């Protein structure tokens, strides 16, 4: 399974390591993902999601139902 956030769609970015002599080599900026279980009271069930920590902070602020609704509106979650 790829390292992609299931709610925001965030994935790894590509950039350069830059040395003091300005030599550039390719590198990857990975996403900070965590596996987390959430209880959805509307559906009366638990779901396990692989989400970024930024999405986790958004869920803590707005609630899982609101974040899932917004992700469905954006076309990330079916």
From TrEMBL:
Family, as annotated: Belongs to the bacterial ribosomal protein bL28 family.
Species the sequence originates in: Flavobacterium chuncheonense
A GO cellular component annotation in the UniProt record: ribosome
Source superkingdom: Bacteria
Protein name, per record: Large ribosomal subunit protein bL28
UniProt cross-references to Pfam families, sorted A to Z: Ribosomal_L28
Lineage: Bacteria, Pseudomonadati, Bacteroidota, Flavobacteriia, Flavobacteriales
Annotated keywords: Ribonucleoprotein, Ribosomal protein
InterPro entries: Ribosomal_bL28, Ribosomal_bL28/bL31-like_sf, Ribosomal_bL28_bact-type, Ribosomal_bL28_sf
Leader sequence residues: none
